[in-house]
Amino acid sequence: MKTYASFSALILSLGLTACAAGPVNERELLVHASTGDIEAARVMHEAGVDLGVVDVESGNGMLAYAASNGHNDFMLFLLDNGLDVNHRNYNGITPLMLAVSAGNYEGIEILARAGADLDLKNYSPGFTAYMIADSNDDSIAMRILQDLGASVCSGCRAPADL
Predict the structure, then answer these.
(1) Is the pTM of this model over 0.90?
(2) Tens of pLDDT along 24-36?
(3) Measured between alpha carbons, how far apart are the two ends of the chain, in Å?
């Protein structure tokens, strides 16, 4: 995997802090979360960059990008560094919901074991992670969530019904 750790260190050493999309170092962190480049994120974090950066357009944090792209080791790194497992973007969508949408089954378990609220609802239409799995006909995610203690909504199917 290509790493941008040296590039990130160079950016920080030059004191570059702004670009049209926001602070260079924060924007770089979001890219690293999307690509799973833990080493680059670690270098930036050690240089003092806050891992709690949020995308100004969506409200997604690094954990959301890692969850939706299946970068489970990156998620563990972020959780170990104190990121909020229940962070909501501007639509109320959590990293757990994004892991469910992406079919990231290991990520679902990681987030649940880290304390993700299995029954949070997004803002509109008010779906839980289980409801998202149901709407995607994803019986595997439904079974995982049910086994982890998620409430099965009235009107939702059981995994065996799919």
Answers:
(1) no
(2) 567 788 888 889 9
(3) 37
- Annotate 44-69 with three-state secondary structure: HHHCCCCCCCECCCCCCEHHHHHHHC
Amino acid, single-letter form, for residue 71 = H
pLDDT at 79: 97
> In the structure, what pLDDT confidence band is assigned to residue 150 with cuts at 50, 70 and 90?
very high
- Among 46, 41, 51, smallest CA distance to 7 is for 41
CA distances from 64 to 9, 74, 103 (A): 24, 11, 14
